[in-house]
């Protein structure tokens, strides 16, 4: 009977919130966790000076609106990669978070034209092709050839930071990819980045030099 009671309690809030059951002796209780839903896209790319209003998030606990915090404010006039984290902690101290990435792209003329041939530090070659203002594609972002070779879109954010937007099926094998953290342009002949591409690639920094 005790087990049936625990299951019924979780079913009651299943459609409204996440729950878990803890048992201490003969006493069972349900823990409700905050549920965070980002309003709008989790990745946003805008040009410097564009209008921007954070659509925020919807946070509930047990189906009811619940207070939360927003980690930072985006300044659309300052190019950069902004990570906005929405967080809520329930009464028992369990935290829930969700993150939105906002990339503000400089509208100034680029310091360096990154198009051309490059190689990773392991000598794996690649080609950077310009597709627009501060926009490129790179055909070997992970420095690994074969079915898992990644072709990515690249944004020169502000002549210092590089960002790889999310791309599904970026390799012949169907891997999805996105920046793990912003890359860095160290000179017109050198850059580095780390990426997240399923379980095949690690998140370590990869460095590239012009050939």
The largest β sheet comes out as:
8 strands, antiparallel, barrel
Q: Helicity, in percent?
A: under 10%
CATH topology label of the largest domain: Immunoglobulin-like
Strand coverage percent:
over 45%
Radius of gyration: 22 Å
- Report the span from N to C terminus: 72 Å
Number of separate structural domains: 2
Main sheet: strand order: 10-11-12-13-14-15-16-17
CATH uppermost class of the largest domain: Mainly Beta
CATH A-level architecture of the largest domain:
Sandwich
Structural category: mainly beta
Shape: globular
Mean pLDDT: 89
Q: What is the fourth-level CATH superfamily of the largest domain?
A: Immunoglobulins
Per DSSP E runs of 2 or more residues, the count of β-strands stands at 17
Please write the string of helix (H) and strand (E) elements: HEEEEEEEEEEEEEEEEE
Total helical segments: 1
Query: In terms of per-residue confidence, which ranges show pLDDT below 50 for 5 or more consecutive residues?
Result: 1-17
List the helices and strands and how they pair.
Blueprint: H1 2-14, E1 18-24, E2 27-33, E3 35-38, E4 43-47, E5 57-61, E6 64-65, E7 69-70, E8 80-89, E9 95-105, E10 116-120, E11 125-132, E12 135-138, E13 152-156, E14 161-163, E15 178-187, E16 190-196, E17 206-210
Parallel strand pairs: 4-9
Antiparallel strand pairs: 1-2, 3-5, 5-6, 7-8, 8-9, 10-11, 10-17, 11-12, 12-13, 13-14, 14-15, 15-16, 16-17
InterPro entries: Cry22Aa_Ig-like (IPR032179), Ig-like_fold (IPR013783)
Domain Pesticidal crystal protein Cry22Aa Ig-like: 36-104
Organism: Mariniflexile soesokkakense
């Amino acid at each position: 009977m005790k087990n049936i009671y625990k299951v019924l309690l979780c079913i009651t809030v299943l459609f409204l919130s996440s729950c878990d059951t803890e048992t201490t002796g003969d006493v069972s209780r349900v823990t409700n966790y905050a549920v965070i839903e980002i309003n709008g896209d989790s990745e946003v790319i805008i040009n410097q000076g564009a209008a921007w209003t954070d659509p925020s998030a919807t946070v509930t606990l047990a189906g009811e609106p619940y207070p939360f915090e927003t980690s930072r404010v985006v300044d659309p006039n300052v190019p950069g990669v902004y990570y906005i984290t929405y967080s809520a902690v329930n009464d028992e101290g369990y935290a829930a978070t969700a993150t939105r990435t906002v990339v503000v792209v400089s509208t100034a003329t680029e310091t360096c034209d990154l198009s051309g041939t490059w190689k990773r530090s392991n000598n794996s070659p690649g080609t950077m092709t310009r597709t627009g203002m501060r926009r490129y594609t790179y055909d070997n972002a992970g420095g690994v050839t074969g079915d898992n070779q990644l072709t990515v879109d690249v944004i020169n954010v502000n002549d210092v930071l590089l960002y790889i937007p999310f791309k599904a099926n970026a390799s012949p094998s169907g891997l999805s990819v996105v920046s793990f953290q912003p890359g860095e342009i160290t000179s017109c002949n050198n850059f580095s980045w780390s990426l997240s591409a399923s379980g095949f690639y690690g998140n370590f920094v990869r460095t590239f030099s012009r050939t």
